[in-house]
Each structure stands twice: as structure tokens, then as C-alpha cells.
Design goal:
about 450 residues, mainly beta, Porin, 14-stranded antiparallel barrel, 4 helices, about 5% helix, about 50% strand
Length: about 450
């Protein structure tokens, strides 16, 4: 194995040990898996970049590779956003830290027809953080999903104008949900009424719940086909199968001071003036809010993408893709606790959604390439489930970037992606009676945007 390939494989092994930080796009998907493709708005199904990222964008295109090739890089997402309350007109800002998603690819052209490769990328993930005092903290104030795919791939040239490819996707994923608990909604043991019925106002936090999973593993597949019509037009399609993940983890609870004092002749038969916090303190040490195991299941949805790429001139290439994601498989998230009365169902009711991508690349000569693109995607979440957890919506995107061949076999690519989301109404609470959410609960406006930058170094031999 050439020294460059060996070094890249060593880096690949290192990245296997690093947890991927996700970044949201449509729903909680992520499509920036190389700086080159990112600069072209991800329009790369028919003509992927020559940096090994065809493992994601179209496994069939690996058959065009000769010898060893590989790349490594990362994409950083710098998001911003806020929520404006309808009633008070106050605004709360997102506090999310920058998120980093790595990508790594190593490919080898075995002969004129057969090629193999392995890739690491993060197609799904999100991370949203709000101040714990935010009114939406009863739904989520610091939550994340990270998903890393490892994909060994084979590609075969059936004919000089037709290639197919397939890969096994091994998904590693971890989820975390932090939210506050509202004591006004809790039932009094043995009494059958809630604290709200005793005069405790709604929105009174008494605990913070941290629900964190261990790493879960799931398996799926990735299929691709690529064809050429004439000398200049390429077409392609790929299908990424869904992956089911069963998570196991731990739920822990920390008390939050309510500052409430019980009146005389209260239903607890304790003296008037007793702090409510003292009364519920035992729940955290020997009651139902002690640390306990939790389980849940999430399906990372299927994707289908089709596209075409045209060499307009020897210097100019343009591409057009359409991508469909089976978001309707993300209907709800059921969280099971040891203490079964704590079991929760988080309604999501996502709907299938599509995206249109247009990209271009122009060869400036002397080893320099300039790239640009535009992307539009539909929203996956319906109006009734736009929450602090993933406040996503319909989006427009602009992209740009440069490529530079430093010397034969060594290329650098940089990309910039500007995400513009349409303002979206949403909610900050669940129905008090436990029923399914509706748009009547929407109580404010979410705004979200992001600056995304990526860098990839590619080697060929």
C-alpha cells in the first residue's frame, strides 16, 4: 500500500474513535460530506467530486477511480436563531455551540471495471441548546442526536456507459435530551389531583431530567447507478436505506427550587409554611426520580436522490439533483423508563420532504476551480410539532467554494454554505391533558439560520 494511502487509513482509524457532532438541515439530516460537493450545493449524484465522496453521493461512481485515492476533512456549522413569544414579545436566543461533522474516504481502483472503498460520514444529527430558564425548556433546552455511518463499498463498470455500486452502512448513534419537569402537572400520590389544582401555577419547574443513551448500532445499505448519454451528459441515482436504532441509556433527575410555601390545612397534612421543595426532596433519593434505565427507538429515514450533470464546455460543468427523504417514518419517539408512569411519547408526525439542488463548477486553469450552487428544501416537521427540540422549516441555501491542485495528486477544497430558513411559528409546551399537539398551542415565532464552512484535502496515487 502506498505511504499516502497508509497515512490516510491511519487517520480513518483515528476518526472511528471520534463521536460525530451533527448539524441540522432538512429535518435533522446533514448533506455536506465534502467541501467540493458542499460548494456545489450537494448536486453530485450524476457527477460526484473526485475526492472519494462518491461513497455517499453515488457509490456507482467509484468505478471511475484509478489506483489509490482518499480524502479527509470536516464541516463546521455555526447556527443562530431565536424564539419570539406572541404574548410578551420577548425574544430568547439559541445558545448552541458550533457543531463539527467529519468526513473520510479511501478508495482503490482494483482494475478497469472494479473499485472498492470505505467512507465515514454523518448524514443525520442535530444539537440545539437554549437557556434552562427558557419557557420551552419543558420540551427541551439542551438536546442532541449524533449519527456516524461507516460504509464499505464496491462499484462495478457493467458497460462503458453504465456502472453500479453498493455499500453496507453501519450506523453508530447516540442521543441526549435535557428538559425541565413542571410540578403543576404532577399527580399527588394517593390524592388523585394535580399540583395545579392546589394552586401551583403552570410552568413551575421542580426538576431537570437528563436522558442520555449509550452508543447504539444499526445496519442498512446504500445502492447507486450511474450512466452516460453521449459524451457530455451523465445521469445517476442512489438509494440509502433506513436504519433502525434501539437505544439504551440512563435517566437522571436533579431538583430545581420552586420557592413555593405550602399553606395551612394543605392535603399533605404538614404544617403551614413548609417549603414544597422539602416535601418533594425524597423523590430524588428514594422515590420515582432516582437514576434509572431508559430505552427508546428511532428510525433514521431512507433517502432517494436522482440527478444529471452536463459538461457544457470543457471548462464548465453544471448539475441538477432532486432528493427525497422518507421523513414520515419519524412519527413519534417513545421513551420507556423503569418507573413506567414516567413513560413519554414525543409526537413528531414528520412528513416526507424533497430538495432541489443546482450546482456548477468552472475550471479557471492553472489548477484552480471555482464552484457555486443553490438549494431549496421543504420542511419535514408539520406546524404542530415545531418545537425547541428541532425548530426546522422551509429553507433556501446559497453555496460557493474553491478547489486548488497544489501539485499532481494533492488537492485542497474549501466551501461556504449560507442557510436561510423561513420564519416558522411553533410551540413551547405540550398539551396539558396529554393529547396530541395541535397548531392551537403554537405561541411564538422561531427564526433559524446558519453559516457552514468546510475543508477537504484529497490525495491520489
Amino acid at each position: 500500500m502506498p505511504a499516502g494511502a497508509l497515512a490516510l487509513l491511519s487517520a480513518l482509524t483515528l476518526f472511528f474513535a471520534l463521536p460525530p457532532d451533527g448539524a441540522e438541515a432538512q429535518g435533522f439530516s446533514f448533506y455536506q460530506h465534502s467541501a467540493c460537493s458542499m460548494a456545489r450545493a450537494g448536486a453530485a449524484v450524476a457527477l460526484p467530486c473526485g475526492d472519494g465522496s462518491a461513497i455517499f453521493y453515488n457509490p456507482a461512481a467509484l468505478a471511475e477511480q484509478e489506483g489509490w485515492a482518499g480524502s479527509m476533512g470536516a464541516v463546521g456549522v455555526f447556527s443562530h436563531g431565536d424564539f419570539t413569544d406572541d404574548r410578551t414579545r420577548s425574544t430568547t436566543s439559541l445558545e448552541s455551540d458550533p457543531r463539527i461533522a467529519p468526513h473520510l474516504y479511501l478508495t482503490y481502483g482494483v482494475n478497469e471495471r472494479l473499485a472498492a472503498g470505505i467512507g465515514v460520514y454523518a448524514p443525520y444529527g442535530f444539537g440545539t441548546e437554549w437557556h434552562p430558564e427558557f419557557q420551552g425548556s419543558f420540551l427541551s433546552f439542551d438536546s442532541s442526536l449524533d449519527a456516524l455511518y461507516i460504509q464499505p463499498t464496491l462499484s462495478y463498470q457493467l458497460h462503458e456507459r453504465l456502472a453500479v455500486g453498493a455499500g453496507l452502512t453501519v450506523a453508530l448513534s447516540q442521543v441526549e435530551l435535557n428538559r425541565r419537569m413542571d410540578i403543576s402537572r404532577q399527580l399527588l400520590p394517593g390524592v388523585g389531583v394535580t399540583f395545579a389544582e392546589l394552586g401551583i401555577p403552570p410552568g413551575t419547574p421542580f426538576a431537570e431530567a437528563n436522558l442520555a443513551s449509550d452508543w447504539a448500532t444499526g445496519v442498512g445499505g446504500h445502492l447507486g447507478i450511474q450512466g452516460r448519454i453521449g459524451d457530455r451528459l451523465h445521469v445517476g441515482a442512489r438509494f440509502l436505506t433506513p436504519v433502525e436504532l434501539d437505544y439504551e441509556g440512563t435517566g437522571s433527575f436533579q431538583p430545581v427550587e420552586t420557592g413555593r410555601i405550602l399553606p395551612p390545612q394543605n392535603p399533605f397534612n404538614v404544617p403551614g409554611g413548609t417549603p414544597l421543595d422539602a416535601l418533594v426532596a425524597a423523590s430524588f433519593t428514594e422515590g420515582p426520580l432516582t437514576e434509572q434505565s431508559i430505552t427508546t427507538r428511532i428510525t433514521l429515514p431512507a433517502q432517494l436522490a436522482i440527478g444529471m450533470g452536463l459538461h457544457v464546455t470543457p471548462e464548465l460543468m453544471v448539475s441538477l439533483d432532486y432528493q427525497w427523504v422518507n421523513w414520515s417514518s419519524f412519527e413519534s419517539v417513545e421513551i420507556q423508563f423503569e418507573e413506567s408512569f414516567l413513560n413519554q411519547t414525543l409526537a413528531q408526525n414528520y412528513r416526507d420532504a424533497g430538495a432541489v439542488r443546482v450546482g456548477a463548477e468552472y475550471d479557471l486553469g492553472e489548477g484552480w476551480l471555482i464552484r457555486g450552487g443553490y438549494l431549496y428544501n421543504q420542511a419535514a416537521s408539520p406546524p404542530e410539532t415545531v418545537t425547541p427540540l428541532v425548530p426546522e422549516g422551509e429553507r433556501n441555501h446559497l453555496t460557493a467554494g474553491l478547489g486548488w491542485e497544489v501539485r499532481p495528486g494533492v488537492r485542497l477544497s474549501g466551501g461556504y454554505h449560507y442557510l436561510m430558513q423561513n420564519d416558522r411559528r411553533g410551540r413551547t409546551s405540550d398539551p396539558a391533558d396529554g393529547s396530541l399537539p395541535s397548531v392551537e398551542l403554537n405561541d411564538g415565532l422561531y427564526t433559524v439560520g446558519a453559516h457552514i464552512v468546510g475543508f477537504t484535502v484529497s490525495l491520489e496515487r
